[in-house]
C-alpha cells in the first residue's frame, strides 16, 4: 500500500547551509557553550550553525529569578552568548544544556485514546514533551481520527486464541501495522484489530501473495490481538471513577448516576476536562468513560461536578454467538490519528496520517524526544542503563522504519514525543472525532516551573559530571573512557565533560557559571474578590411574560494556568446551566470590589484566551443574558500575574565564588586533559577591580582551599592555567535586528566569536586582540583606568572602549610560564597537536625503516613549512622557525623493537607587536618625532 504523504501548508522554505572551510589544516574556529536553556536535550552536545537553529531546538531565553536590587528579571546567559558568538563572526558551535536530575518533562493526555501494552494492560494514553522543563506549560493537545471506509466481505473470530480474520475490499491495499475498526450497529459491538499479516486474494481462490499489498482489491487481514468493545449505559450502582493524572491516579466518588450524566465529588478546577478518560468500577462491571462535557453544580454540600459522555465496556474475548451471530455485517474503516498542538491564539501545529501500532511507518509513538533525536542523528544506538527501556524493537529496523516521520518533525520541531514505553504498545481510539474539538493541557505538577527546569538550586553539580569532579589531569581521560565504554553500566558523560568526545571543539565557555545563586520567595496572597450580589427578582406580583424566569449564574471562571507570568497567555473557562442561546459577558477589574470593571468579552462561548497582561492581580466575573433576562454574576476569580519566577537572586554582598571556582577549575582540567582546548572564562557582573584581581589569583593559587569537592590546580598542574583566558567586564549589547533593545551579558560568547572570526580570516596563530567587538554599546561596570595595568598584570583581558569601538588590547591566558602566556601561542600548539595527529594517521602500519623516517621527516617539514609561510612562526627562514627531529638519538633501536616511533617538533611561535610608544618632542618651532618600542 502506498501511504499518503502528510499534508503541509503551501509555501517556500529556504534552508541556509553553513559555508565549507576550504583548508587542509584542522578547524580551530569551533566553540562550545554549556549553560541553561528552556528546552533541548540535557547533557548532550548539539551542533548549531545559526541562531535560528539554536532557537528552534533550545527555545527562547529562560527566565530564572528576579534581581531585587535592580528590579529586573534575570535570564539564562546561554542564548545571549550563542547570539553574540554568531554576531561576532562564529560559524559553528556545540551547545550543551545542563540541569539537575529534578528536571521533568510535561505529560499530555491524548483525548479519547487508550493505550494497550504488549501484555494487554489498558490505560489512558499520554504523550511527552520533547524535552524536560516548563517551556511546554502553555501547550494544549487535541486528537482527531481519520476513518477511510473499507468494504467488509467476511469476518471470522474464533473463540480461542486463534487470529481474527477479515476479508475486505481495499482498493489502496493494506499493510501490517494498520488499525482496522469494524462497528456492528445492531448489537452495539465494535472490533479494533491491529493488522499483523496481509494476503491478497482472488474471490473463490486461495492466497496469491503476502506482505505489503499494492493496488489490490480483495485483501485478507489477520491479527491475534483484537479488542472487542460494547457500548454501555452507566446504571445506578456504587461506582468509583479512576482518573489517571500522569504517574498518579485520582479516585473520584460518583455521587449519582442519571440521564443527565455522572455527578463527581470534586472541585470544578480539578475536574476532568472534555476528552479525559475515566475508568468506572463497581462490584460487577468496569467501564471506560470518555468525558464529553463537564460543569459544576451549585447548592451541594461538597463541590460537585456533572460530566456527560460515552461509556464502553472492554470485553474479555469474542462476543457470545447470541450477541453477535456469525455473518453479521458491519461498517469497516481504516483508522489513522491526527495530533494538533496549539499555544494560545497561535495557529495549531499538526501531524496527520499517523499510525496507532508500532509496525506502522508513521507510528505516533516513534516521535522522538530531543535526546533520542540527537542519538539518532549522530548514529548512536542507546547504551548503558537505558538500553532495555529504549530498544523496544530491533533498533536498526525501528530507526529505518520511522525515518521519514522523524524527518518530517524536524523542521519545524514538533513539540511532543511518544510515551516512554518498556514494550511496544498499540493505541486504541474510544472517543476521538474527526475534528480537533477537545484540547487538553499538560498534567498539572505540584512543582514550580524552575523546579521542573531542574534549576531550583544553583550549584556546581549542574555543570560537572560527579564521577569526574575531583579527578586530576593525567587520570581524567582514562576515567572518562571507563565511564563511557568499560564500566558495568556504560553511560554518556554529563555537564561540561560531555564535550570530551567532540574532537572539533577548540573553545569552551560556560556563560551561566557566573550567576549569583537564587532562592524561593513567598508572595503575599491576593485579596479575595467581592462576593456576587443576587440577581434582581422580577415583579412576580405584576403581569409578566410567561417565559420570565430567574437565570442561574454561571460557574466561577477557571484560569489555565492558574498563576501565569507577565506577557504570557492564559485561558479562562466557565460554564452556565442557562442552556443554548445565552450570551456570556466577561468582566475584568484590578480591584477586588470590581470598581472600574470593563467588559472583555460578550458572546456565546464559555472560553477566552488572554495575553499581554502586566504583573499584578486581576479579577474576573461572568454573567449570562438570555431574552432580555440577566443573571447574577458568577463568583469572582482572582488571577495573580507575576513578573516572572517566584525566585530572587541573593544580594551581591552575600555572593561566594565557591561555585564559580569549582566550575572553572574543572573546566581548566578538562581543557588540559584534552590538550587542544581553550577555556574562555568570565566573572560575575558586580566584580570590580579588586575582586577580579583576587579571583584570577585564586585560580592560580596552588594551595587554595578545595571548593565543592574540586581541589585547586597544584604545582604539577600549573600547565592547565595556559588553557584558560579570563575576560571582564560585562557587555551592554543590542540584539541583532532590534537595536532599540539592549541587555547585559558576560563577554565570553562575544570573545569566542572574535577568536573564531580571527581564526577563519587569518589563522589560529594570530593574536585575537585589537579586533572590534560587534553589537557592544557600553560596558558594565566601567572599570577605573588607573587599575588597567593591575588588571593586566593579573592576567585579566580587559574590554575597552577605543575610537574604533570596543575591543581588547591584550590576549593573555592565566599561564605562569611567560612563554605560554599569549593566547595565540596556546592556540598554535593546539593546532600543531591536531595537525600532527591528522598527519600521523597516514603512517600507521608502515615498516619502521630508514625510508619511513625520511617519509615522516618530509611530511612534517612540509606541514610546518606551510605554517611558516602563513606567518605562524618567527625567524628569517625555516631553519630558524622550526625543527623536526626523527633521528637515532630519539628513535633508538630499543624503541624500534617495541614498535614505537617518535617525532619531536620544535617551533618558535611568532609574537605580535604588543605596544608601540610614539613620543612627540617639540624643540623651538620645529617638531621632532621619536619612536620607541
Note down, in words, how this protein is organized.
There is one protein chain. It contains 16 helices and 48 strands. By secondary structure, the chain is α+β, with helices and mostly antiparallel strands. Residues 519-539 are annotated as: Disordered. InterPro entries: Tail_sheath_structural.
Per-chain topology:
Elements: E1 30-35, E2 46-48, H1 51-58, E3 63-67, E4 72-75, H2 78-87, E5 93-97, E6 107-116, E7 122-129, E8 139-156, E9 164-169, E10 179-184, E11 189-194, E12 197-201, E13 207-210, E14 218-223, E15 227-232, E16 240-245, E17 248-258, E18 261-265, E19 277-281, E20 286-297, E21 304-314, E22 331-343, E23 349-354, H3 370-377, H4 387-390, H5 395-401, H6 403-408, E24 416-417, E25 426-429, E26 440-441, H7 449-452, H8 476-486, E27 505-509, E28 518-520, E29 558-560, E30 569-573, E31 583-589, E32 598-603, E33 607-611, E34 616-626, E35 629-630, E36 637-641, E37 647-649, H9 658-674, E38 678-682, H10 689-700, E39 724-728, E40 730-735, E41 738-745, H11 748-762, E42 776-780, H12 788-793, E43 796-802, E44 805-808, H13 823-840, H14 850-869, H15 878-881, E45 882-885, H16 893-897, E46 904-907, E47 917-923, E48 926-932
Parallel strand pairs: 1-5, 1-27, 27-38, 38-39, 39-43
Antiparallel strand pairs: 2-5, 3-4, 6-7, 6-25, 7-24, 8-9, 8-22, 8-26, 9-14, 10-11, 10-22, 11-15, 12-13, 12-14, 15-21, 16-17, 16-19, 17-18, 18-21, 19-20, 20-21, 22-23, 28-37, 29-30, 30-33, 31-32, 31-34, 34-35, 34-36, 40-41, 40-42, 43-44, 45-46, 47-48
Helix pairs in contact: 1-2, 2-11, 13-14
Amino acid at each position: 500500500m502506498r501511504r499518503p504523504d502528510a499534508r503541509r501548508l503551501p509555501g517556500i522554505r529556504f534552508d541556509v547551509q553553513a559555508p565549507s572551510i576550504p583548508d587542509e589544516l584542522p578547524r580551530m574556529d569551533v566553540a562550545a557553550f554549556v549553560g541553561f536553556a528552556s528546552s533541548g536535550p540535557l547533557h548532550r552536545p548539539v551542533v548549531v550553525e545559526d541562531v535560528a537553529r539554536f532557537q528552534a531546538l533550545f527555545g527562547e531565553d529562560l527566565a530564572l529569578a528576579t534581581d531585587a536590587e535592580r528590579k529586573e528579571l534575570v535570564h539564562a546567559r546561554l542564548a545571549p552568548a550563542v547570539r553574540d558568538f554568531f554576531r561576532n563572526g562564529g560559524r559553528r558551535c556545540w551547545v550543551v544544556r545542563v540541569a539537575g536530575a529534578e528536571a521533568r518533562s510535561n505529560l499530555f493526555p491524548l483525548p479519547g485514546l487508550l493505550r494497550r501494552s504488549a501484555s494487554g494492560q489498558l490505560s489512558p494514553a499520554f504523550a511527552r514533551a520533547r524535552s524536560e522543563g516548563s517551556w511546554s506549560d502553555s501547550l494544549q493537545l487535541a486528537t482527531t481520527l481519520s476513518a477511510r471506509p473499507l468494504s467488509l466481505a467476511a469476518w471470522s473470530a474464533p473463540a480461542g486464541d486463534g487470529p481474527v480474520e477479515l476479508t475486505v475490499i481495499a482498493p489502496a491495499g493494506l499493510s501490517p501495522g494498520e488499525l482496522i475498526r469494524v462497528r456492528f450497529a445492531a448489537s452495539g459491538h465494535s472490533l479494533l484489530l491491529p493488522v499483523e499479516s496481509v494476503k491478497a486474494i482472488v474471490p473463490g481462490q486461495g492466497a496469491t501473495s503476502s506482505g505489503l499489498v499494492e493496488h489490490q482489491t480483495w485483501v485478507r487481514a489477520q491479527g491475534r490481538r483484537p479488542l472487542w468493545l460494547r457500548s454501555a449505559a452507566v446504571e445506578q450502582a456504587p461506582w468509583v471513577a479512576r482518573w489517571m493524572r500522569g504517574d498518579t491516579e485520582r479516585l473520584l466518588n460518583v455521587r449519582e448516576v442519571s440521564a443527565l450524566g455522572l455527578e463527581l465529588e470534586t472541585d470544578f478546577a480539578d475536574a476532568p476536562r472534555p476528552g479525559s478518560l475515566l475508568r468506572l468500577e463497581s462490584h460487577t462491571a468496569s467501564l471506560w468513560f470518555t468525558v464529553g462535557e463537564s460543569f459544576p453544580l451549585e447548592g451541594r454540600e461538597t463541590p460537585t461536578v456533572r460530566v456527560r459522555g460515552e461509556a464502553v465496556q472492554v470485553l474479555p474475548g469474542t462476543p457470545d454467538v447470541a450477541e453477535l451471530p456469525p455473518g453479521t455485517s458491519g461498517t469497516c474503516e481504516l483508522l489513522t490519528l491526527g495530533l494538533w498542538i496549539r499555544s494560545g491564539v497561535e495557529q495549531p501545529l499538526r501531524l496527520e496520517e499517523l499510525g496507532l501500532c508500532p509496525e506502522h511507518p508513521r507510528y505516533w509513538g516513534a516521535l522522538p524526544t530531543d535526546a533520542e533525536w540527537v542519538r539518532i542523528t549522530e548514529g548512536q544506538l542507546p547504551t548503558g542503563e537505558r538500553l532495555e527501556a529504549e530498544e523496544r524493537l530491533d533498533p536498526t529496523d525501528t530507526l529505518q522504519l520511522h525515518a521519514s516521520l522523524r524527518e518530517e518533525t524536524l523542521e519545524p520541531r514538533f513539540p511532543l514525543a511518544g510515551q516512554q514505553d518498556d514494550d511496544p504498545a498499540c493505541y486504541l481510539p474510544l472517543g476521538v472525532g474527526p475534528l480537533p474539538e477537545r484540547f487538553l493541557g499538560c498534567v498539572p505538577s505540584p512543582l514550580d516551573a524552575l523546579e521542573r527546569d531542574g534549576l531550583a538550586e544553583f550549584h556546581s553539580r549542574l555543570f560537572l559530571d560527579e564521577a569526574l569532579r575531583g579527578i586530576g589531569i593525567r587520570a581524567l581521560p582514562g576515567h572518562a573512557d571507563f565511564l563511557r565504554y568499560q564500566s558495568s553500566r556504560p553511560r554518556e558523560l554529563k555537564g561540561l565533560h560531555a564535550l570530551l568526545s567532540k574532537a572539533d571543539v577548540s573553545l569552551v565557555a560556560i556563560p551561566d557559571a557566573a550567576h549569583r545563586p537564587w532562592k524561593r520567595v513567598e508572595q503575599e496572597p491576593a485579596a479575595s474578590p467581592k462576593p456576587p450580589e443576587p440577581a434582581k427578582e422580577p415583579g412576580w406580583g405584576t403581569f409578566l411574560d410567561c417565559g420570565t424566569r430567574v437565570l442561574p449564574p454561571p460557574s466561577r471562571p477557571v484560569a489555565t494556568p492558574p498563576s501565569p507570568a507577565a506577557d504570557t497567555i492564559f485561558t479562562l473557562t466557565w460554564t452556565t446551566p442557562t442552556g443554548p442561546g445565552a450570551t456570556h459577558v466577561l468582566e475584568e477589574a484590578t480591584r477586588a470590589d470590581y470598581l472600574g470593571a470593563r467588559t472583555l468579552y460578550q458572546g456565546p462561548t464559555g472560553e477566552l484566551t488572554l495575553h499581554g497582561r502586566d504583573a499584578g492581580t486581576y479579577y474576573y466575573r461572568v454573567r449570562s443574558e438570555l431574552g432580555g433576562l440577566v443573571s447574577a454574576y458568577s463568583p469572582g476569580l482572582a488571577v495573580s500575574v507575576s513578573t516572572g519566577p517566584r525566585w530572587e537572586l541573593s544580594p551581591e554582598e552575600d555572593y561566594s565564588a565557591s561555585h564559580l571556582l569549582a566550575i572553572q577549575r574543572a573546566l581548566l582540567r578538562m581543557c588540559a586533559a584534552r590538550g587542544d582546548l581553550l577555556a574562555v572564562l568570565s566573572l560575575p557582573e558586580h566584580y570590580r577591580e579588586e575582586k577580579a584581581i583576587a579571583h584570577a589569583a585564586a585560580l592560580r593559587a596552588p594551595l587554595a582551599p578545595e571548593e565543592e569537592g574540586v581541589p585547586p590546580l597544584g604545582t604539577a598542574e600549573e600547565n592547565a592555567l595556559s588553557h584558560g583566558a579570563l575576560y571582564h567586564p560585562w557587555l551592554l549589547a543590542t540584539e541583532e535586528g532590534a537595536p532599540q533593545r539592549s541587555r547585559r551579558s558576560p563577554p565570553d560568547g562575544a570573545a569566542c566569536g572574535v577568536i573564531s572570526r580571527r581564526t577563519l580570516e587569518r589563522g589560529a596563530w594570530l593574536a585575537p586582540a585589537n579586533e572590534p567587538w560587534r553589537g557592544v554599546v557600553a560596558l558594565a561596570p566601567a572599570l577605573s583606568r588607573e587599575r588597567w595595568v593591575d588588571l593586566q598584570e593579573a592576567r585579566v583581558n580587559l574590554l575597552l572602549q577605543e575610537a574604533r569601538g570596543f575591543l581588547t588590547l591584550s590576549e593573555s591566558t592565566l599561564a605562569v610560564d611567560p612563554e605560554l602566556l599569549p593566547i595565540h601561542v596556546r592556540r598554535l600548539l593546539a593546532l600543531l597537536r591536531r595537525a600532527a595527529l591528522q598527519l600521523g594517521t597516514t603512517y600507521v602500519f608502515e615498516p619502521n625503516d630508514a625510508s619511513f623516517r625520511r617519509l615522516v621527516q618530509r611530511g612534517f617539514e612540509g606541514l610546518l613549512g606551510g605554517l611558516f609561510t602563513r606567518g605562524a612562526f618567527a625567524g628569517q627562514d625555516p631553519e630558524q622557525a622550526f625543527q623536526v627531529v626523527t633521528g637515532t638519538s630519539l628513535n633508538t633501536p630499543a624503541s624500534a623493537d617495541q614498535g614505537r616511533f617518535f617525532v619531536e617538533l620544535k617551533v618558535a611561535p611568532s609574537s605580535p607587536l604588543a605596544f608601540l610608544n610614539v613620543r612627540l618632542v617639540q624643540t623651538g618651532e620645529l617638531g621632532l618625532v621619536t619612536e620607541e618600542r
